[in-house]
Tubulin/FtsZ GTPase domain-containing protein (Pycnococcus provasolii), 500 residues
Amino acid sequence: MPRELVTLQVGQAGNQVACRFWELALHEHAAHSSLYGDAISTIFANVDARGQAIPLSSGPSLSPSCPIFSLRARAVLVDMEESVTAAILRGKLREIFSGPPVIAGSGGSGNNWAQGFVEHGPAKRDVILDAVRRQVEDCDSLQGFLMMHSLGGGTGSGVGSYLLTALADEYPEAYRISAPIFPSGDDDVVTSPYNALLAASKLVEAADCVVPLDNAALLRTVESTSATTTPVSSGGSKSTGGKPFTAMNTAAATALLGLTAPVRFPGSLNVDLGELATNLVPYPRLHFLSASCVPSTTNTSASTASAAVAARSSSSHVRASGASRTRELTADAMYRACLQPAHQLNSHVDPMRGTNLAVALLHRGDASLDDAERGVRYLRSKCRMVSWNPHGFKVGLCSVPPIGYERSLCMLSNNCSVHGGLTSLSDRFQMLWKRRSYAHHYTNYLSEADIEAAHETVVGVAEQYRAIHRKNENGGNEHDDDDGAMYRRRRRSLGLCFST
Ligand SMILES: Nc1nc2c(ncn2[C@@H]2O[C@H](COP(=O)(O)OP(=O)(O)OP(=O)(O)O)[C@@H](O)[C@H]2O)c(=O)[nH]1
Ligand SMILES: [Mg+2]
């Protein structure tokens, strides 16, 4: 039975990343049309088996033999101004979205988390939850929610974090996974340190897992692969401050494809999102999972529908279509590559330096259990695992590779060096807050005490991560062992361990 995932795409960046995700997901499912069925229905509803093919009008159309007809993304589009979603609904993906997007015609949230969280969120709560409810009613067995949003502006951060809180109230049994775009240090939104910090404090409370994708890391990824890939337009993604958002969004979408592949496709060792949360999150607030993906972006030259379809029948065609270095990597080379900075999507995390509380290795393609065991042994030799969970690797094997590749790996690590990112966020926030720069935009909506409390929440989580790392460096202690025993018992009782 499918366990469906409902996606909420909130604000400009959230909608842009999501569109790239849907476009690439469609290509993947087109390339593996024989696998159409329960798997794809985790993220798409098939509303009418006799409908029209999805017109990807600006590229070659999907092969008529691919049964991707009348699919509707299990998605709710939200923004507080209409330009981005209007462009999406005029674009090549328009037919996959059912129901209108939820828009407040106010011209956005003004790059202000507080306006999004305090004003627009509550004002739009009922209409958004109505749209969510319609999607949930279409599901046989809802697995959870995946939110794509940025934390630098006002809507993705404010309305997005408000919605996660609302979902926690309304659907307490469903997993809530947030994939937020964190602003880079040189972000062009001057208030982004406030927005990101205030939103992060809510993600601590309201999400089950957060997979930070930061713009600095996405840019680094794009730059390191730009010589070998050809970005294609995702329709309307504007580039500000010289950042190649279209290519960065492809990298973000690639990570999300890797994360969701085990629920979208069959495999000999499947991992659903609940298992990720169970295995990777030993303490509820310490749920920041850093992603490292190999390859770290999609080979867009091979992701046109025709190449995708050809990939099934003639791998030589794809090989000839101009390719990327990473495609040639063996499984062993992938394990080495996933530790390299160019593949980290959280620029503050180094999986080899910080203590790992747990790690998931989500393979796609032809990797075998033997490969995975070798990979786990290799990573254990390179990475520090917390003393009470030395075998804390969760392995997924999904047989379907990404377009244009024979295999890929998405490594998710609950790594203590995430405290560096949270501390840097706190520093950037404090630079403004100490002088109360731009503070009135926020204190118009909430008290200084609320803002201080949000800051303490984020600093508290950073401190917890740092403390675990320090204790581990000192060889752990009795208390750790108690915690570890409890965690191991819980994992064993669920039968979810994988160790070598
Ligand atoms: N990766 C990526 N980042 C983006 C994109 N568009 C904007 N950003 C970043 O997102 C932050 C701004 O957030 P937006 O998503 O534009 O804002 P919003 O959520 O629509 O909020 P408001 O416009 O204030 O209502 C900044 O940090 C930008 O650098 C995009 O397409 N991709
Ligand atoms: Mg906006």
The CA atoms of residues 223 and 342 lie 9 Å apart. The domain at 4-272 is CATH 3.40.50.1440 (Rossmann fold). The chain has a mean pLDDT of 83.
